Amino acid sequence: MQPAIYGMAGERLTADERAFFRNADPAGYILFARNVSSIEQVRALTDELRSLHGRDDVPILIDQEGGRVARMKPPVWPPFPTGERFAKLYDISPVGAIEAARANAQAIAVTLREVGINVDCLPLLDVRQPGAHDIIGDRALGSEPMQVAALGRAVLEGLQAGGVVGVVKHMPGHGRSMADSHKELPVVDASEQELETDIEPFRTLNWAPMGMTAHVVFTAWDRNYCGSLSSRVIGDIIRGRIGFDGWLMSDDLGMHALSGEFGARASGVLAAGCDVALHCSGDMAEMQSIANELGDMSDQARRRLDRAMATVEGQGAGPDYAELAARRDELLAYA
């Protein structure tokens, strides 16, 4: 199994994609808006991805956060609130906000499982900082680490109850970045003491099954490499100080925070300590470049992946979407 997660170009696999994926045998796949149009279409696509390798538990990811980051959109799929909505309710009723976040996450999971998606890149544990770039902004669960961790825990629990694995992101924290890593490389000059605020939610939820790194330079830890490419950030901070031992993926290799040839980007994040390299665009030339550089996923990474996917075995039975959404909306009405 190759330590890569790949995207695809459209709503159905092309013959070239089918052949490439069979040969590469990637660890998983990720879907975007270009890949989804109807419940029946997405289910057929995810069924085919599983059948390529005979792996029922192959991770099929999506970014379905709510608000502006949602790949599955109305009118086919329901809208979901931003993280900020739950943060505002937390100021009034922490218990109510936690319950609402859990119900919302389980409602998301219900819609994902219906179409065969079993991993959601959620929750964000980035602590919102005043004056930072709005790439995180209203996606955040708050500006206080304990609150972010409490709501993040509820999201992980809600997703799991609905049969979907959650991914904590963006480790070790994207909340104080002054730039959008999709467009350029952010550099954070905060002190180690200040960065304790950023890593606290990740440390509290270090048992999470999966995590995603940040393409951000933290000068207090490594002036030369962003977190995704830094063995010090991954080894000393994410694996060490935070204590995270889940399956760790890079953020998207196609983001402009990174540079260089795609095979080198992939081998770089793996050499730094990521378990798997994430590539989202579905560009065949880029994927082939990555595949040519990668060997098999390490035994340790495979164990982490198996452990993560096992957390949702037997999950998914429970309230339907309407019941969960109604409970969420009843609680959010107080904010």
Automatic annotation (TrEMBL):
Keywords associated with the record: Glycosidase, Hydrolase
Residues of the Glycoside hydrolase family 3 N-terminal domain: 14-296
Keyword tRNA-binding found: no
Domain of life: Bacteria
A GO molecular function held by the record: beta-N-acetylhexosaminidase activity
SUPFAM superfamilies in alphabetical order: (Trans)glycosidases
A Gene Ontology BP annotation from the UniProt entry: carbohydrate metabolic process
InterPro entries (UniProt xref): GH, Glyco_hydro_3_N, Glyco_hydro_3_N_sf, NagZ_Beta-hexosaminidase
Catalytic activity of the protein: Hydrolysis of terminal non-reducing N-acetyl-D-hexosamine residues in N-acetyl-beta-D-hexosaminides
Coiled coil residues, start to end: none
Keyword Hydrolase included in the entry's annotation: yes
Enzyme Commission code: 3.2.1.52
Family in the record: Belongs to the glycosyl hydrolase 3 family.
Protein name: beta-N-acetylhexosaminidase
Native organism: uncultured Sphingosinicella sp
Lineage: Bacteria, Pseudomonadati, Pseudomonadota, Alphaproteobacteria, Sphingomonadales
